[in-house]
Amino acid sequence: MIKKYYSSENYSVANTIVVNGLKELIFLLLFAFEGTTYLVRPSWVSYEEQLKILNKPYKSIITKMENNFKLTPELLELNLGNEKNKLLILNNPTNPTGAVYSKEELKKIAEICKKNNIIVFADEIYLDLTFERDYTESFSKYYQKHFAVVDIELDGLLLLQN
Ligand SMILES: Cc1ncc(COP(=O)(O)O)c(C=O)c1O
Predict the structure, then answer these.
(1) What separation in Å is there between the alpha carbon of 23 and the centre of ligand 1?
(2) Do 86 and 36 meet the contact criterion of CB atoms below 8 Å apart?
(3) Domains of the chain
(4) Alpha carbon nearest to ligand 1 atom 3, residue
(5) Mean pLDDT by 10 residues, the chain (162 residues)
(6) Rounded to two decimals, what is the model's pTM?
Protein backbone atom coordinates (compact mmCIF):
# COMPACT_ATOMS: atom_id res chain seq x y z
CA MET A 1 0.00 0.00 0.00
CA ILE A 2 2.80 2.43 0.86
CA LYS A 3 4.51 1.62 -2.42
CA LYS A 4 1.31 2.12 -4.37
CA TYR A 5 0.88 5.68 -3.21
CA TYR A 6 4.28 6.83 -2.06
CA SER A 7 7.39 6.26 -4.08
CA SER A 8 9.59 8.11 -1.58
CA GLU A 9 12.21 6.02 0.17
CA ASN A 10 11.48 7.92 3.35
CA TYR A 11 8.43 5.84 4.06
CA SER A 12 8.79 2.60 5.91
CA VAL A 13 6.85 0.36 8.20
CA ALA A 14 8.59 2.15 11.07
CA ASN A 15 6.77 5.41 10.39
CA THR A 16 3.41 3.96 9.53
CA ILE A 17 0.54 3.02 11.80
CA VAL A 18 -2.58 1.10 10.89
CA VAL A 19 -5.63 1.62 13.07
CA ASN A 20 -9.12 0.29 13.43
CA GLY A 21 -11.22 3.01 11.80
CA LEU A 22 -10.25 6.38 10.47
CA LYS A 23 -12.41 8.38 12.84
CA GLU A 24 -10.35 7.16 15.75
CA LEU A 25 -7.14 7.95 13.93
CA ILE A 26 -8.22 11.53 13.23
CA PHE A 27 -9.21 11.94 16.85
CA LEU A 28 -5.77 10.78 17.97
CA LEU A 29 -4.09 13.11 15.49
CA LEU A 30 -6.09 16.11 16.68
CA PHE A 31 -5.47 15.14 20.28
CA ALA A 32 -1.72 15.05 19.72
CA PHE A 33 -1.46 18.29 17.75
CA GLU A 34 -0.76 21.48 19.67
CA GLY A 35 -1.76 24.48 17.61
CA THR A 36 -4.55 25.79 15.41
CA THR A 37 -6.36 23.52 12.97
CA TYR A 38 -7.74 24.96 9.74
CA LEU A 39 -10.91 23.39 8.37
CA VAL A 40 -11.92 23.86 4.76
CA ARG A 41 -15.71 24.27 4.79
CA PRO A 42 -18.03 22.66 3.89
CA SER A 43 -16.24 19.71 5.43
CA TRP A 44 -16.91 16.23 6.67
CA VAL A 45 -18.94 16.59 9.88
CA SER A 46 -16.71 14.92 12.42
CA TYR A 47 -13.57 17.08 12.16
CA GLU A 48 -15.28 19.97 13.90
CA GLU A 49 -17.08 17.84 16.48
CA GLN A 50 -13.83 16.13 17.44
CA LEU A 51 -12.06 19.46 17.80
CA LYS A 52 -14.89 20.63 20.04
CA ILE A 53 -14.70 17.51 22.21
CA LEU A 54 -10.95 18.00 22.53
CA ASN A 55 -11.36 21.71 23.19
CA LYS A 56 -8.73 22.49 20.56
CA PRO A 57 -8.55 25.80 18.70
CA TYR A 58 -9.63 25.79 15.07
CA LYS A 59 -10.55 28.17 12.28
CA SER A 60 -12.89 27.70 9.34
CA ILE A 61 -12.00 28.61 5.78
CA ILE A 62 -15.27 29.10 3.93
CA THR A 63 -15.03 28.08 0.29
CA LYS A 64 -17.23 29.44 -2.50
CA MET A 65 -19.50 27.77 -5.01
CA GLU A 66 -17.76 29.73 -7.83
CA ASN A 67 -14.60 27.76 -6.98
CA ASN A 68 -16.51 24.48 -6.77
CA PHE A 69 -16.11 24.64 -2.98
CA LYS A 70 -12.36 24.20 -3.28
CA LEU A 71 -9.63 25.81 -1.25
CA THR A 72 -7.60 28.18 -3.40
CA PRO A 73 -4.09 29.46 -2.60
CA GLU A 74 -5.51 32.98 -2.24
CA LEU A 75 -8.21 31.88 0.18
CA LEU A 76 -5.70 29.99 2.25
CA GLU A 77 -3.34 32.96 2.52
CA LEU A 78 -6.20 35.28 3.34
CA ASN A 79 -7.35 33.13 6.26
CA LEU A 80 -4.02 32.28 7.83
CA GLY A 81 -3.32 33.62 11.29
CA ASN A 82 0.07 34.05 12.90
CA GLU A 83 -0.08 31.00 15.15
CA LYS A 84 3.19 29.15 15.52
CA ASN A 85 1.75 25.71 14.75
CA LYS A 86 -0.78 25.37 11.99
CA LEU A 87 -2.51 22.24 10.76
CA LEU A 88 -4.55 22.22 7.57
CA ILE A 89 -7.02 19.41 6.97
CA LEU A 90 -7.23 18.92 3.23
CA ASN A 91 -9.81 16.35 2.19
CA ASN A 92 -9.47 15.31 -1.45
CA PRO A 93 -11.78 14.15 -3.00
CA THR A 94 -14.00 16.09 -0.68
CA ASN A 95 -16.89 14.86 1.40
CA PRO A 96 -19.56 16.32 1.24
CA THR A 97 -19.10 18.50 -1.86
CA GLY A 98 -17.53 15.95 -4.20
CA ALA A 99 -14.88 18.49 -5.18
CA VAL A 100 -11.70 17.00 -6.62
CA TYR A 101 -8.47 19.00 -6.73
CA SER A 102 -6.38 18.94 -9.88
CA LYS A 103 -2.65 18.29 -9.67
CA GLU A 104 -1.95 21.95 -10.49
CA GLU A 105 -4.28 23.14 -7.73
CA LEU A 106 -2.59 20.88 -5.22
CA LYS A 107 0.86 22.10 -6.26
CA LYS A 108 -0.16 25.71 -5.71
CA ILE A 109 -1.66 24.97 -2.30
CA ALA A 110 1.54 23.11 -1.40
CA GLU A 111 3.58 26.23 -2.22
CA ILE A 112 1.55 28.32 0.23
CA CYS A 113 1.83 25.59 2.86
CA LYS A 114 5.59 25.53 2.42
CA LYS A 115 5.87 29.29 2.64
CA ASN A 116 3.84 29.35 5.87
CA ASN A 117 5.24 26.19 7.43
CA ILE A 118 1.87 24.48 7.66
CA ILE A 119 1.46 20.83 8.55
CA VAL A 120 -1.11 19.21 6.29
CA PHE A 121 -3.35 16.34 7.18
CA ALA A 122 -4.34 14.91 3.81
CA ASP A 123 -7.52 12.91 4.20
CA GLU A 124 -7.50 10.99 0.93
CA ILE A 125 -9.71 8.05 1.74
CA TYR A 126 -11.69 8.62 -1.46
CA LEU A 127 -8.68 9.07 -3.73
CA ASP A 128 -9.43 5.94 -5.73
CA LEU A 129 -13.12 6.72 -6.00
CA THR A 130 -12.64 9.20 -8.82
CA PHE A 131 -13.84 8.84 -12.39
CA GLU A 132 -10.51 10.14 -13.70
CA ARG A 133 -7.81 8.99 -11.35
CA ASP A 134 -5.12 10.78 -13.40
CA TYR A 135 -6.76 14.15 -12.81
CA THR A 136 -5.68 14.27 -9.17
CA GLU A 137 -2.88 13.02 -6.97
CA SER A 138 -1.94 12.42 -3.36
CA PHE A 139 -0.89 15.69 -1.74
CA SER A 140 2.19 13.91 -0.47
CA LYS A 141 3.62 14.03 -3.99
CA TYR A 142 3.96 17.78 -3.67
CA TYR A 143 4.54 18.37 0.02
CA GLN A 144 6.72 16.65 2.56
CA LYS A 145 5.34 18.09 5.77
CA HIS A 146 2.17 16.11 5.99
CA PHE A 147 0.20 13.31 7.45
CA ALA A 148 -1.72 11.32 4.90
CA VAL A 149 -4.51 8.84 5.16
CA VAL A 150 -5.24 6.71 2.19
CA ASP A 151 -7.30 3.73 1.16
CA ILE A 152 -10.88 3.22 2.06
CA GLU A 153 -10.47 -0.55 2.35
CA LEU A 154 -7.62 -0.49 4.79
CA ASP A 155 -9.36 2.44 6.44
CA GLY A 156 -6.68 4.13 8.39
CA LEU A 157 -3.15 4.13 7.09
CA LEU A 158 -1.33 7.10 8.51
CA LEU A 159 1.94 8.23 7.10
CA LEU A 160 3.85 10.83 8.99
CA GLN A 161 6.60 12.71 7.24
CA ASN A 162 8.65 15.53 8.66
C1 LIG B 1 -13.71 12.47 4.55
C2 LIG B 1 -13.86 11.41 5.57
N3 LIG B 1 -12.84 11.19 6.42
C4 LIG B 1 -12.94 10.25 7.36
C5 LIG B 1 -14.09 9.47 7.52
C6 LIG B 1 -14.16 8.45 8.63
O7 LIG B 1 -14.06 7.17 8.22
P8 LIG B 1 -14.35 5.92 9.20
O9 LIG B 1 -15.74 5.48 8.85
O10 LIG B 1 -13.31 4.92 8.85
O11 LIG B 1 -14.23 6.35 10.61
C12 LIG B 1 -15.16 9.67 6.65
C13 LIG B 1 -16.39 8.87 6.79
O14 LIG B 1 -17.43 9.17 6.27
C15 LIG B 1 -15.06 10.66 5.67
O16 LIG B 1 -16.05 10.92 4.81
Answers:
(1) 6
(2) yes
(3) 17-161 (3.40.640.10)
(4) 123
(5) 58 70 86 94 97 98 96 97 94 96 97 93 88 89 74 54 46
(6) 0.88
